[in-house]
User: Fold this.
Amino acid sequence: MFFRLIRPAVFALDSETGHRLALRTLGALPARSPAPAGPLAVDVAGLTFPNPVGVAAGFDKDAEVPDALLGLGFGFAEVGSITPLPQAGNPRPRLFRLVEDAAVINRMGFNNGGAEAALARLRARAGRPGIVAVNIGANKDSPDRIADYAVMARMMAPVASYLCVNISSPNTPGLRALQDEGALTGLLDAVIAARDAAGSAAPIFLKVAPDLEPADIDAIARIAIDRRLGALVVSNTTISRPALRSHHAGETGGLSGAPLRALATQRLRDFRKATGGAIPLVGVGGIATAEHAWERIRAGASLVQLYSAMVYEGPGLGVRIARGLEALMRRDGFASIAEAVGSE
Assistant:
């Protein structure tokens, strides 16, 4: 209700300024404990998530407010994407609300304050409860992007509940080429070796694009199983453009929110089929209600993540979806989230 009252004022600001205001507001909230494990608890990659609803990467790029997000009732928070060196990202404006479409287009370009600054914040929260993951990326001008990912894995594995390797952003030129079979194998081997060298057992998740061909899906699934990844995150933003009403529809960048829902859900089903359920999946893209999240779980997701919907519904959306999921789970006769995964 509070968010609905202030939303007109927030929407009067440009999108990126509004986002910074949201982060500052969250940072000023009194400390609250993370959600306790309850009927929605689910085990994925050796971690127990108190509920399956998390915050996707991109919301808290610099690990400024992970504990505030957990205090809002989210089951986990994924910070980043973080790169080894600070970078400004692409020129502004680069973040656009498509209000008529309940969507967002961004071409941020991995803007962040760099690994050292984020690492200091994450070390400062050491010992606090809650699942906080780190989404890692490569610098745009890096001569060796695989080396960048290895550096990030070595630095962040000791402070991350899990590492998420992001090779699917459309806003860093050439990055999605790392999803190709040969490049992906080399990348994951380097990340796993760096994680191991850091003395960490943090699971490694891989975030993939929705704009993949069937052969790509099969290859990624095979590699993920072979490398024993913790999960696949399906999916990042899309470069495709379904019919949109907003005057921002022509902006370049990745599209997220409601128009991505059908594509992201189908891609999740594709990965469920390609993996045969052998690796957990995280459903992302266009989730705005408990029913959307439940559909993704029934399609094969063990966890779900939100971002764009919070732009329109506020940060209380996570706990509302979690409560709705519990009701849906009981309605359909399931005793746990794990029992419902892939049950469609």
